[in-house]
């Protein structure tokens, strides 16, 4: 979130403009009635939302919901991890791009410190979340790619699964250029020269990460090749923003307003709207990008608004 826009006087959403826990739960119940089994809380930074464990407990209790996950920058995780686990959170993903304090500081806009994030990862791992603790690492050429092996070395034999996500052109502000992307293939080549790996079979159809294990038994890592091998055809995700817009693609230019329906209509109307959004979806931005047909100028929703 660029400081130039989100300065001291920026008017963030008022509480009444955001969905309440009751409203989020209603959307989740309708989604579960359609067969959704997994929910992920992301952002923005989900740990900034007061009483988050209460929301997690409500979501985890919805019939049909088998998996509630959280993606966080880890800054506030240590103080909340036990309450999140107790509330029924199944798994945690922490975003960590570098173990070099200077690079980490630069990539987090000078606002976060590395040591507390590493401590929070260790405490979350010690709590024993059923679905484990994963790291999301986005590698940008010339920014943090030199530190990839150090990062893996640190987490080998800890049970924490590092997953590399190819750097994407989400939103309009990150100045993305194709040359900045370090592909999974490139990373894999660098990694196997140090630690031989073998592929693991997917847990389920459409699993976004290609998983590998170290031959020496030091654990598992994954690669999400969203730029070099787009998986739009297998994508089954929808994203609900804090103010109730639903999006069917990370690269969407517009969403559908569920907040009005939540506030003015009943669950049958909500069900109808959600079904229609899903039936009508045509997004395949990453494939279009791979085919060099993506419109670079299209006004995409920013990542901090739509989640990762
Ligand atoms: C937008 S963040 C939101 C959740 C939380 N604040 C966090 O930092 O994890 C979700 C995920 O998106 C990833 N991400 C952000 N920008 C990205 C980009 N340009 N390409 C690929 N992944 C990106 C982050 O690394 C993070 O794991």
TrEMBL record:
Annotated Gene3D superfamilies: Aldolase class I
Q: What is the lineage of its organism?
A: Bacteria, Pseudomonadati, Pseudomonadota, Alphaproteobacteria, Acetobacterales
Q: Which cofactor does it need?
A: [4Fe-4S] cluster
Q: Which PANTHER family match?
A: MOLYBDENUM COFACTOR BIOSYNTHESIS PROTEIN 1 (PTHR22960:SF0), MOLYBDOPTERIN COFACTOR SYNTHESIS PROTEIN A (PTHR22960)
Q: Which UniProt keywords apply?
A: GTP-binding, Iron, Iron-sulfur, Lyase, Metal-binding, Molybdenum cofactor biosynthesis, Nucleotide-binding, S-adenosyl-L-methionine
Q: What is the name attached to this protein's record?
A: Cyclic pyranopterin phosphate synthase MoaA
* Species in which this protein is naturally found: Kozakia baliensis
| Residue intervals of the Radical SAM core domain | 1-198
What InterPro entries does this protein's entry cite?
A: Aldolase_TIM (IPR013785), MoaA (IPR013483), MoaA_twitch (IPR010505), MoCo_biosynth_MoaA/MoaC (IPR050105), rSAM (IPR007197), rSAM_sf (IPR058240)
The UniProt entry's GO biological process terms, in alphabetical order, are: Mo-molybdopterin cofactor biosynthetic process
Task: Recall the GO molecular function terms of this protein's record.
Answer: 4 iron, 4 sulfur cluster binding; cyclic pyranopterin monophosphate synthase activity; GTP 3',8'-cyclase activity; GTP binding; metal ion binding
Offer one Pfam family short name for this entry.
Answer: Mob_synth_C
- List, alphabetically, the CDD domains matched: Radical_SAM (cd01335), Twitch_MoaA (cd21117)
- Signal sequence bounds: none
């Amino acid at each position: 979130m660029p400081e130039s826009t989100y300065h001291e006087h920026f008017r963030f959403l008022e509480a009444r403009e955001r969905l309440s826990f009751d409203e989020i739960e209603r959307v989740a119940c309708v989604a579960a009635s359609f067969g959704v089994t997994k929910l992920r809380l992301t952002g923005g930074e989900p740990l900034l939302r007061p009483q988050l464990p209460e929301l997690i407990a409500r979501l985890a209790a919805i019939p049909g919901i088998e998996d509630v996950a959280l993606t966080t920058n880890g800054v506030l995780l240590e103080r909340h991890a036990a309450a999140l686990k107790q509330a029924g959170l199944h798994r945690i993903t922490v975003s960590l791009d570098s173990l070099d304090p200077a690079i980490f500081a630069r990539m987090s806009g000078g606002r976060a410190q590395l040591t507390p994030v590493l401590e929070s990862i260790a405490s979350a791992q010690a709590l024993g979340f059923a679905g484990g603790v994963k790291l999301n690492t986005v590698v940008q050429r010339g920014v943090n790619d030199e530190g990839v092996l150090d990062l893996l070395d640190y987490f080998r034999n800890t049970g924490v699964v590092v997953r590399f996500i190819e750097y994407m052109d989400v939103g309009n502000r990150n100045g993305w250029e194709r040359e900045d992307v370090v592909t999974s293939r490139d990373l894999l080549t660098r990694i196997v020269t140090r630690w031989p790996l073998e592929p693991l079979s997917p847990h389920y159809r459409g699993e976004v990460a290609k998983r590998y294990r170290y031959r020496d038994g030091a654990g598992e890592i994954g690669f999400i090749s969203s730029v070099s091998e787009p998986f739009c055809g297998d994508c089954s995700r929808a994203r609900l923003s804090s103010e109730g817009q639903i999006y069917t693609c990370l690269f969407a230019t517009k969403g559908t307003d569920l907040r009005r329906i939540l506030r003015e209509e009943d669950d049958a109307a909500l069900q109808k709207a959600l079904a229609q959004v899903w039936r009508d979806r045509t997004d395949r931005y990453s494939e279009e990008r791979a085919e060099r047909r993506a419109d670079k100028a299209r006004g995409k929703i920013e990542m901090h608004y739509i989640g990762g």
